[in-house]
Design goal:
alpha/beta; Rossmann fold; five-stranded parallel β-sheet; six-stranded mixed β-sheet; 18 helices; about 400 residues; 2 domains; globular
Length: about 400
C-alpha cells in the first residue's frame, strides 16, 4: 500500500494552463462517447498531454515516463490499474508494453466508455499494443503540431509566410518566449539521443543525425533509399529501418502515388515530407525567416508546409488520409491528388506570390488525361488573394485549409 499511496500522490489533478484550442478535441470527445478507450498519438511536444488533460480535467493523470510509476506498473499491473476505477490518462503507455494485456481485461469488465485516455509519441509501441490487445476497444487519433487555422483562431500568428515556415507549429514556440533555433536544436538532440535509442540500435548517432539532415534536404522529393545510403555511408536496409523510425516518431510522413494510372507508366515510389517546416529549416541550417525568401529550397519548404496542413486537416477531423500524388515516367506530375468520393481533385503547389501563366500547365495536362474522374482543380500559392481564374481556384496560403476535402 505504501508504494501505491506514494504513486497516487504524484498523480496530478490540477488544471492545465489554458492554451490554444485544438481542432482534434471534438473528435476525441466523440470517440470517448463511443469507445472504452481513446488513444492520442503524435510527435513529442505536439501537445498530446495538454490536450488530454484539458479535454478530461477530472481524470487522474499519470506519466509512465516517471521511473517509479513505470516500475510499479511493470511489477504489479493489476494493482496499478485498480487505482483508477473510473479510468485515467496514461501518458507514454508504450513504455510498459505488458500493460496493454491487463488493460484489455480491465476494459472488458466495464461497459463505461471513455474510461482510459492513452497517449504515446512512438507509433511502433502504441500500435503494437493496440493491435495485439486493444483492437475493437480503442479509437485512435493523431495530434500533429499546431495547424495554421488553429493559430489564426487564437490570434497567435501574423500573416508572414516566411516567419511561419521558419517557426513551424510546435506549441511550445507559441506558449512561451522560446528562441526558435535553440528550441529546435534541443528538440533534435533529445529526439536523436533518447527516442532513437529506444526504437533502434544506432551505433553512431552522428550518422543518424546526418541522415535526418539529408532527409530535410529531400523533403518533397521521391524517396531514394539507395541515394541516402550512399550519402550517409550505410547499407540500403539500414536506411529503410531509419525511415521507419522517422515515420514512427512523426518526424516525416510518406505521400504515396495514386494507383490510377490512366494507361500511363506511373512512378511507384513514395515522396518524403517533413511533418514540421520549423524542424526542417533548422536541419537545413536556416537561421531566420528572412533567409527562406532566397533559399534554394524555398519551394520545397513551402510544398512541405502545404502538404502538412492538408494532413493535419484530415487527422484533426478524424478522417482517413486521402492524400496522394501522381507522376508518370515521362515527368508529368501533380503535387497532390485528393480522393473525394468518385472524384480525384488535383492540387498544384507554387511558392511564388505572383500568379504566373504557366502555373496550371501540369493541372491542365492531368485533367485532360483523367477526363471525367478529375475534380475541380486547385492551386495553392504564396500570395495573399484567393480567386478563381477560368476553371482553377487559386488559394492563398493564408486561407488554408479552406480547400481540403
Amino acid at each position: 500500500m505504501g508504494t501505491q499511496n506514494t504513486i497516487a500522490n504524484t498523480i496530478a489533478h490540477h488544471e492545465p494552463r489554458p492554451l490554444i484550442q485544438r481542432e482534434l478535441q471534438s473528435e476525441i470527445l466523440r470517440a470517448a462517447r463511443e469507445m472504452p478507450a481513446v488513444g492520442i498519438t503524435g510527435p513529442r511536444q505536439s501537445g498530446k498531454t495538454t490536450l488530454a488533460r484539458m479535454t478530461f480535467p477530472d481524470k487522474p493523470y499519470v506519466t509512465l515516463e516517471d521511473l517509479d510509476i513505470r516500475r510499479f506498473a511493470e511489477e504489479d499491473p493489476r494493482g496499478f490499474l485498480n487505482q483508477f476505477p473510473d479510468g485515467a490518462i496514461l501518458d507514454e503507455i508504450q513504455r510498459v508494453p505488458d500493460l496493454f494485456s491487463y488493460l484489455q481485461s480491465n476494459l472488458d469488465n466495464s461497459r463505461q466508455t471513455g474510461r482510459f485516455i492513452l497517449t504515446g509519441s512512438q507509433q511502433f509501441g502504441l500500435m503494437q499494443g493496440v493491435t495485439q490487445s486493444l483492437a475493437g476497444r480503442i479509437a485512435l487519433t493523431t495530434l500533429l503540431p499546431l495547424s495554421l487555422s488553429e493559430l489564426k483562431r487564437s490570434s497567435r500568428i501574423e500573416q508572414n509566410l516566411n516567419q511561419w515556415l521558419f517557426r513551424g507549429g510546435y506549441p511550445r514556440l507559441y506558449d512561451q518566449a522560446e528562441r526558435i533555433h535553440a528550441w529546435h536544436r534541443d528538440y533534435t538532440s533529445t529526439y536523436v539521443e533518447r527516442d532513437v535509442r529506444q526504437l533502434v540500435n544506432v551505433r553512431d548517432l552522428r550518422d543518424f543525425f546526418r541522415f535526418i539532415q539529408l532527409c530535410a534536404g529531400r523533403s518533397g522529393q521521391l524517396l531514394n533509399a539507395s541515394s541516402l545510403a550512399k550519402d550517409v555511408g550505410v547499407n540500403h536496409e539500414t536506411i529503410r529501418t531509419w525511415i521507419s523510425v522517422l515515420e514512427a516518431s512523426y518526424i516525416i510522413h510518406l505521400l504515396y502515388p495514386h494507383h490510377r494510372n490512366f494507361n500511363k507508366r506511373i512512378i511507384k515510389a513514395p515522396k518524403l515530407y517533413f511533418v514540421d517546416t520549423g524542424l526542417m529549416c533548422y536541419l537545413l541550417g536556416i537561421d531566420s525567416g528572412e533567409q527562406i525568401q532566397t533559399h534554394h529550397l524555398r519551394g520545397a519548404i513551402f510544398e512541405t508546409f502545404v502538404v502538412s496542413e492538408m494532413l493535419k486537416n484530415r487527422l484533426n477531423s478524424g478522417s482517413r488520409n486521402n492524400l496522394y500524388f501522381w507522376r508518370d515516367r515521362a515527368g508529368h506530375e501533380v503535387d497532390v491528388i485528393i480522393e473525394e468520393g468518385q472524384k480525384l481533385v488535383p492540387v498544384e503547389i507554387k511558392s511564388g506570390r505572383t500568379i504566373a501563366s504557366d502555373y496550371t500547365r501540369s493541372l491542365d495536362w492531368w485533367r485532360g488525361v483523367a477526363g471525367e474522374e478529375a475534380g475541380p482543380a486547385r492551386l495553392i500559392y504564396g500570395g495573399d488573394k484567393t480567386l478563381k481564374i477560368k476553371d482553377v481556384q487559386y488559394v492563398s496560403w493564408w486561407e488554408l485549409p479552406w480547400y481540403a476535402g
